[in-house]
């Protein structure tokens, strides 16, 4: 049994740089774990743990022209971990440092696109114990870096699209239990998604619409020892919907072609999770 409390202290303020189009945002946050108690009910023992950290967040946005924004962010994170280790005792808090730079642009006032590069380092990350899946184990240090591209907007009246691609390189950089350089589990190097929908804008069928999308997830490791891979998959979804004033109704079709695939694993070949089969879900909503 674990009891935990923590306190947040934050300060945030924008800085405008003269008459330029640059805006910097600075935020300081202190996270202090007041008390974390791990109690072994069987042996009637207790372990107390407390810690604090300074976690700054800094960002800057620059607009060379109104349609283009360049940005950069830096942050540090401090997150208390809950749970009890297999051998007893509390977990160390998770710590992280991240950098991100990117560019955002508007295309003809109909589409917006964002291209970003990020670099994230985390330590003391919890993952499923490879031998005892009901427990967790901490990895030493993980690093994820990659590129993300997203596009969204209304191409024509009623025709909307959202798409994204991500390349991710996620590895173990320090650890005593798992080989350094191994890929992180459940994280594909390549993933892609696209969803488009069209809603009739006039006439007797106004408000009626259809949508469809593709979701691709590449090969990824099934455990931190990299002993097996989860294969890639391509899932197709679709939807039919109707909107009229405050009334909303929709029928969503997930995994339209009933593809068999593994969605994730619990760091073990005996802890695999299948993706949902072909599923139909209907919703009706009235907005007040």
UniProtKB/TrEMBL annotation:
<comment type="similarity">
    <text>Belongs to the TonB-dependent receptor family.</text>
</comment>
<keyword id="KW-0798">TonB box</keyword>
<keyword id="KW-0410">Iron transport</keyword>
<keyword id="KW-0732">Signal</keyword>
<protein>
    <recommendedName>
        <fullName>TonB-dependent receptor-like beta-barrel domain-containing protein</fullName>
    </recommendedName>
</protein>
<dbReference type="Pfam" id="PF00593">
    <property type="entry name" value="TonB_dep_Rec_b-barrel"/>
</dbReference>
<dbReference type="InterPro" id="IPR000531">
    <property type="entry name" value="Beta-barrel_TonB"/>
</dbReference>
<dbReference type="InterPro" id="IPR039426">
    <property type="entry name" value="TonB-dep_rcpt-like"/>
</dbReference>
<keyword id="KW-0998">Cell outer membrane</keyword>
<keyword id="KW-0813">Transport</keyword>
<keyword id="KW-0472">Membrane</keyword>
<dbReference type="GO" id="GO:0015344">
    <property type="term" value="F:siderophore uptake transmembrane transporter activity"/>
</dbReference>
<feature type="domain" description="TonB-dependent receptor-like beta-barrel">
    <location>
        <begin position="35"/>
        <end position="256"/>
    </location>
</feature>
<keyword id="KW-0408">Iron</keyword>
<keyword id="KW-0406">Ion transport</keyword>
<keyword id="KW-1134">Transmembrane beta strand</keyword>
<keyword id="KW-0812">Transmembrane</keyword>
<dbReference type="InterPro" id="IPR036942">
    <property type="entry name" value="Beta-barrel_TonB_sf"/>
</dbReference>
<dbReference type="GO" id="GO:0009279">
    <property type="term" value="C:cell outer membrane"/>
</dbReference>
């Amino acid at each position: 049994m674990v009891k935990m409390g923590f306190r947040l202290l934050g300060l945030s303020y924008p800085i405008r740089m003269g008459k330029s189009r640059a805006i910097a945002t600075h935020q300081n946050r202190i996270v202090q774990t007041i008390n974390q108690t791990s109690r072994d009910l069987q042996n009637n023992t207790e372990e107390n743990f407390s810690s604090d950290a300074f976690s700054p967040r800094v960002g800057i946005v620059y607009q060379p022209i109104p349609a283009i924004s360049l940005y950069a962010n830096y942050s540090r994170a401090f997150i208390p971990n809950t749970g009890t280790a297999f051998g007893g005792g509390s977990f160390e808090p998770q710590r992280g440092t991240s950098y991100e730079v990117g560019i955002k642009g508007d295309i003809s006032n109909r589409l917006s696109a964002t291209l970003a590069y990020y670099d994230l380092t985390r330590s003391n990350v919890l993952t499923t114990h490879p031998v005892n899946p009901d427990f967790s184990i901490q990895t030493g240090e993980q690093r994820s870096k990659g590129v993300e591209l997203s596009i969204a907007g209304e191409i024509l009246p009623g025709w909307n699209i959202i798409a994204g691609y991500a390349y991710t390189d996620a590895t173990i950089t320090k650890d005593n239990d798992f080989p350094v350089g191994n890929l992180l589990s459940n994280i594909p190097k390549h993933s892609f998604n696209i969803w488009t929908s069209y809603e009739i804008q006039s006439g007797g069928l106004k408000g009626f619409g259809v949508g469809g999308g593709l979701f691709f997830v590449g090969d990824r490791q099934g455990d931190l020892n990299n002993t097996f891979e989860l294969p890639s998959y391509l899932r197709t979804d679709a939807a039919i919907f109707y909107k009229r004033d405050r009334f909303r109704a929709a029928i969503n079709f997930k995994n339209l072609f009933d593809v068999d695939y593994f969605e994730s694993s619990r760091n073990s070949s005996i802890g695999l999770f299948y993706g949902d089969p072909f599923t139909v879900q209907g919703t009706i909503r009235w907005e007040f």
